[in-house]
Design a protein that fits this description.
single chain, mainly alpha
């Protein structure tokens, strides 16, 4: 998981990145 410092300032970008990482795990 990304640390708070690595997360984007925009909450939407953060949410998209988290969802994207979950999808990558499901696909793999």
């Amino acid at each position: 998981m990304l640390t708070k410092e690595e997360l984007p300032a925009c909450p939407v970008a953060t949410t998209v990145s988290l969802i994207g990482s979950k999808w990558k795990i499901l696909i793999i």
